[in-house]
Amino acid sequence: MSVVDRQEWDVVVVGAGGAGLRAAIEARERGARTAVICKSLFGKAHTVMAEGGIAAAMANVNAGDNWQVHFRDTMRGGKFLNQWRMAELHAQEAPDRVWELETWGALFDRTKDGRISQRNFGGHEYPRLAHVGDRTGLELIRTLQQKIVSLQQEDFKETGDYESRLKVYQECTVTRVLKDGSRVSGVFAYDRETGRFFVLEAPSVVIATGGIGKSFKVTSNSWEYTGDGHALALLAGAPLLNMEFVQFHPTGMVWPPSVKGILVTESVRGDGGVLRNSEGKRFMFDYIPDVFKEKYAQSEEEGDRWYEDPDHNRRPPELLPRDEVARAINAEVKAGRGSPHGGVFLDVSTRMPAEVIRRRLPSMYHQFKELADVDITAEAMEVGPTCHYVMGGIAVESDTAAARGVPGLFAAGEVAGGMHGSNRLGGNSLSDLLVFGRRAGWHAAEYAVGPAGARPPVDDIQVDAAAAEALRPFSAEGPAPGEEDGRPPENPYTLHQELQQSMNDLVGIIRREGEMEKALEKLADLRVRARRAGVEGHRQFNPGWHLALDLRNMLLVSECVARAALERTESRGGHTREDHPTMDRGWRRINLLCALTDPTGGLEATDPAHGQIDLTRETTDPIRPDLLALFDKEELVKYLAEEELYE
Ligand code: FAD
């Protein structure tokens, strides 16, 4: 019988980034007693790192903008694989979510006439990103935190307890979603500082844990991004959607090695920065794909004129969607025209006065000065692709953010799939967090406290199993059952490094069948070894133990990425196959779903040498005719499958 501490809530939100906090605010405002749990310090979520801005068609800088244009850009960016209803809701609701932030105290940069300023970004037809210098995520999180504190103060006035209706558990990691039959009943978690286990009981759980970048060696992502939410959903029986689509941002730092992968924001290009190869050529003009030819400048002069007069000129190709720019940089480096440290040059120094650079891009200025001893007001940066974002994620209902197949489970933010199709446009994540964070909180609250609300009991056996699973790294000296004797425990750090290297080299920006097969073999080997991942010491703040637990999640999501990438025999958005280099219209309607081989969520029973993931194909819903009518027929012909055109 388990003696783990338990507390009761209506809604538990796992993750305190933009999506989690927005969900928690909504759930509390709709009457649900809500707990937020995060493995970082409160306020330190990955969202804080967001630089460029929030995409919302507010039309403050160009009156031509509206939700329909934003929807169109998002679908084009995602190469029409987006869950179109999500893209529609997102484009329609993003402006209200930005306004709402201002009413809660956010202070965005202004236009000369006092409106919220909006900047250009790749793939967006008009200046659309509301921003605060290049520190937008910080302002977003600060504002949501402030709102949470103000709700807690309201609750204190009424109940005498700040945490009676909204409580944050910081530096705590959730390792399992608990269930009663098919329904959610709560989560199992541990406190990272003390190692103490506890259970939060709740009929609704919102997963908002962000991305998976820490499975790759070169990444812009923070330490939290170990794919926990993706794995929690899989283990709870919810499928993941289109995990092959991983975004490699074109511009990460490449030097010095200790900072390789750290992001260089797209605002640098949005504000006028240009990409050059070792010969000084602005090479992006050679890489404009046919589907975008009519929308992008064909000469440097036209591209430069666009910054001043966007209505009469086309945008420069440095502002193509990220997947296109990342592939172009990769090709230049491969062709021997790279910079000394294996990237290309990104230059603002010849494009803007030093004082403007320092004002508009303060973080970039300090980042390069302090980390690389480069003064970006006087010299070019060296940049190259870095693993940045995962478009794949938990399969959700578009309107409600409910995870498929598991009543009571919801997902929002980067961990949810569908919204961005095969490639996300910059700025569309922060708006996604707000739009679908709110929707997840709303529907989670409705499910928990609405008329149909029930409180499923927590099963002691599951709690004990979760505790045993979490403790296993402390007793890993011996061999796992059925394995030969005498092998020492594996070091979780070594396993993690091998995983990151394999994913980077074999399932990275350019993919090949043989390499992905090799990656799956390597993952099978790592899975066997990870069962012997052992740590010394005790449960009080033990980073090796935390990593040993995170490995389960990274191995699961990496297998999903590799299997789905091997299956999709075309190139689309963030998924580039050297052996299938073109986009195939026949694949436009195909979603790939990953589910756990053992539907009960057990990993013990499965043979670790074999895969843990089953892959199935699913045909997507036809795009609604009024949304299709927003595009020219000639454009649709490039994307839609033959039968869709006839329909
Ligand atoms: P996060 O903000 O990452 O929050 C995840 C939360 O989950 C954290 O609190 C974490 O502690 C918690 N968590 C994770 N696992 C567990 C667990 N097992 N148990 C408990 N808690 C857990 N997008 C834009 O739209 N515009 C931009 O300008 C932009 N700039 C970016 C710049 C950088 C450098 C990077 C890396 C990304 C940028 N992005 C940008 C992308 C965007 O920041 C992210 O996609 C977004 O912030 C993700 O938010 P989220 O709420 O889904 O997750």
UniProtKB/TrEMBL annotation:
Residue ranges constituting the FAD-dependent oxidoreductase 2 FAD-binding domain according to the UniProt record: 10-430
Q: What is this protein called?
A: Fumarate reductase/succinate dehydrogenase flavoprotein subunit
Q: Which residues does UniProt mark as catalytic?
A: R322
Which InterPro entries does this entry report, sorted A to Z? FAD-dep_OxRdtase_2_FAD-bd (IPR003953), FAD/NAD-bd_sf (IPR036188), Fum_R/Succ_DH_flav-like_C_sf (IPR037099), Fum_Rdtase/Succ_DH_flav-like_C (IPR015939), SdhA/FrdA/AprA (IPR030664), Succ_DH/fumarate_Rdtase_cat_sf (IPR027477)
Which keywords are on file for this protein?
FAD, Flavoprotein, Oxidoreductase
Q: Name the domain of life this protein comes from.
A: Bacteria
Its needed co-factors are: FAD
UniProt-annotated stretches for the region Disordered: 475-494
Species of origin reads Streptomyces spongiae
Annotated Fumarate reductase/succinate dehydrogenase flavoprotein-like C-terminal domain residues = 496-592
Q: Name one GO molecular function term.
A: steroid dehydrogenase activity, acting on the CH-CH group of donors
